[in-house]
Amino acid sequence: MTTPLDRLKAEVCALHAELLRWGLVAWTSGNVSGRLPGSELMVIKPSGLSYDELTPEQMIVCDLDGKVVEGELSPSSDTAAHAYVYRNRPDVGGVVHTHSPYATAWSAVGEPIPCAITAMGDEFGDDIPVGPFALIGDDSIGQGIVATLDGHRSPAVLMRQHGVFTIGKNAKAAVKAAVMCEDVARTVHLARQLGPVSRLPQQDIDRLYDRYQNVYGQAPADKAAAAQAPAAAQTSAAQAPAAPAPAQAPVTVGSEGEPA
Ligand SMILES: [Zn+2]
C-alpha cells in the first residue's frame, strides 16, 4: 500500500522530467522539492544524479533543517535553501531551482523582469524580482528567497548572478512557475531587441492577476470556492459559508540538488 510519502517521492521524481521537457536545465543543474503535507518533512532529489536515472526510491527525505531522515544518497546541494523556505513559509508546499538561461541572464545583470505582458500579469502579478547574491553552503540563499518574496505576488525570484527559485502551493505549481518564468524572461528579452518595453499599468496587472488566479481554467475546488465566495457573501450573507482562506494548505514539495 502506498503512503503519502511514497506518492510524494514519485511526484517529485516525475516532476524532474518536466525540467528537461521545458528546457530549464543543463546536465543536473536544477531541482524540485515537495513538502509532505502536515509534517515537518520534505522530499528532495539526490545530488548529482542524471534526471533520466532518477527513481522514486532514490528521493531523499529530509527534515526542515535539511537533515536527511531517509535515503541512501546525499541530498541536493540546494537542500538548505529549500528547507529554509519551508521553515519560514508554511504556505509553501513546493520549491524549484533552475539556471534556465533567459531568466538567469536577467539575474546576471541584476534586473527585475518588468511586468510588460499579460502572461506576466496572470502568473506573477508583478515584476519578477531580483534577490541578493548569495553563495551556496548555508542559509544565505534561503534567506534571500524568503526576504525577496515576502509580501510579493511573484512566485519566482531571480537570485542575483545565480538563477531562479520558485515557490508554489505544491511541487507542481512551483514547476509551473519555473516554466512560466523562463517563458516570460525570453519573451521580454526578445521584445527588448525590437524596442523599448513598457510595464503594464498597475490596475491592469491587478485585474489580470485576480482573474487568472481566481477564475481562469477548469475551476478546481479551491479556485471555485475563492471565485464564488465574494458573490455568496453579497447575495446570501446569512447562509454563505465563510470564504475559504486562500490555498495555504501545506503541500508536498521536493527539492533537488544543484549541480553536483
Ligand atoms: Zn543553482
From TrEMBL:
The reaction(s) this protein catalyses: L-ribulose 5-phosphate = D-xylulose 5-phosphate
EC number in record: 5.1.3.4
Low complexity compositional bias, start-end: 223-250
InterPro entries, per the entry: Aldolase_class_II_sugar_metab, Aldolase_II/adducin_N, Aldolase_II/adducin_N_sf
Residue ranges of the region described as Disordered: 223-260
Keyword Metal-binding annotated: yes
Residue intervals of the Class II aldolase/adducin N-terminal domain: 10-189
UniProt key word Membrane: no
Keywords of this entry: Metal-binding, Zinc
Cofactor annotation: Zn(2+)
Any Pfam family: Aldolase_II
Homology family: Belongs to the aldolase class II family. AraD/FucA subfamily.
UniProt protein name: L-ribulose-5-phosphate 4-epimerase
Organism annotation: Streptacidiphilus jeojiensis
Source taxonomy: Bacteria, Bacillati, Actinomycetota, Actinomycetes, Kitasatosporales
